[in-house]
Structures are given as structure tokens and as C-alpha cells.
Amino acid sequence: MVGNDIVDLDFCEPAEHHHIRYLDRVCAPEEADAVRRSVNPVNALASIWASKEAAYKLLSKQLELPHFVPHQFVAQVENHEGAQIYQKLSILYRGVQADVSILSTERWVHAVAVLPSMKIKWTVGEIEKCFFGSRKASTESEAVRFLAHALLAQLGPQDVTLQFEGRVPQLKRKGGGHSGMYVSLSHHGAFAAAAIAWPACGPVPESSDDARLALAKNSEAVCSTCTA
After folding, report:
1. Closest CA relative to residue 156, chosen from 169, 171, 138
2. CA–CA separation, 75 vs 48, rounded Å?
């Protein structure tokens, strides 16, 4: 299972994001203090928020959580220096821990939460530049689906397709049944992101040259594979 979240940093600049009431509404006290002490409070807040969202998306699939309540997902920031740009955070939800990997650029912060037994492949793309073949994405939701299709094509399985149960994205076999792979989609502001995970004990999906080219055309070339 996997959860991911993307934050467009242009949407985190307004002063109200630094207001004490805003921080106290979305952060636990130790998180709010870490944001205030950070040399880059916008990035710190975006990293904590994205990590909470990614952890919720991961754990909600296991625990069947109906709603996202930010205060219930607490980032373990005690051991981080204020000047540090977060690359990993642990999120605790009622005694259950989710480990989150974070990548940040000058324009966005992306967080991915995955179970220890899973491997992951992810990509971030600018919505205005997301295409599926010659078709340009017309909405944020369409853009993130295009990224997921391109990422799935890169990984190689020919009999797996992106489907939805309600609003929940799933990767299923074309002939029916679960594929053993998991997907998470997100978008915010000008950016979309997709992440696909599969069991670490299983084979790493192969990629064709054509698939790699298709993904490179549709993303910011920040695709990464890691084991959490």
C-alpha cells in the first residue's frame, strides 16, 4: 500500500499560513514550534502537511479511516534541527507509525508513505504539461491519471489498468482481480503526482525504452524508486 501528497509552494506563501491560529489548527504543538523555528517555515509546513496527508492515504486503506483529521497525525520532529530541510519524517496515528520520504524543490514538496515491505516508483509533473499520447490534460484529475498511466507503462505490466472504486484509485488486472500493485494520486496548484508500490519480495517491473520515453515527456524527470 502507498500514499502520496504534493504541495505547490506558491500556495503556501500567504501570511495567514504563518499565523498562530492557522498553525494551531493544522499542527500539533511540537510541529507548530518546529515550523516557527525553521529557517524555511514555508517548506517546513509544506513538508509536515504533505507527510500527514501521505500517511493518512496509506493508513486509511489499512484502517478504513473515514476522514482526515490533521491533529491526529503527528510528525515526529523532536530530533530534527530547525535549519534542516526534511527528507524523512515518521508520522504517528494512534500508536501506528508511517514512515514518509520527502523530496522538495523550489516549486513543490512531495511526500510518499509506504509500508516497509513495499518498493515504490513515483513521478511529479506540471499539470499544464501532462499529455496522454497527443491529448493534453484538461483538468487536474485528468492530469494525475495521465501521470499514473505513464508511470504504469514505464513499469511494464501489460495486463494492469487504473480503475476507480468510488474515488479510490486501484490497479487491477484487465481480466479481473487485484494486480498486487497499489497506486496513490494527488494534485495541488500547478502540479500532479502519482506513486505506485509493489511487494519488495516480488520482481521489479521491467521498463521498455518506449515507456521510459513516454514518461520523460510527461513528467519533470524526477521519477525515483526506493525501498522505505
Report:
1. 171
2. 7
Specify the 3-state DSSP secondary structure of 214.
helix
Question: Element (H or E) spanning 152, and its range?
Answer: helix 140-155
Domains assigned to the chain: 2-107 (3.90.470.20), 118-227 (3.90.470)
User: pLDDT digit string (tens) for 112-156?
Assistant: 999 888 899 999 999 999 988 889 999 999 999 999 999 988 888
- Range list of H helices, 38-103: 41-63
CA-angle at 166, arms to 218 and 131, nearest 5°: 15
Long-range contacts of 214-218 (CB under 8 A, 24+ apart): 214/150, 214/153, 214/154, 215/123, 215/150, 215/151, 215/153, 215/154, 217/131, 218/125, 218/129, 218/130, 218/131, 218/132, 218/146, 218/147, 218/150
pTM: 0.84
Residues sharing a CB contact under 8 Å with residue 87, sequence separation 6 or more, in sequence order: 101, 102, 103
**For residue 141, what is its C-alpha cell?**
484529475
* pLDDT at residue 81, rounded to an integer: 57
**Tens digits of residue pLDDT in 52-105:** 999 999 998 777 777 888 888 999 987 665 545 679 999 999 899 999 999 999
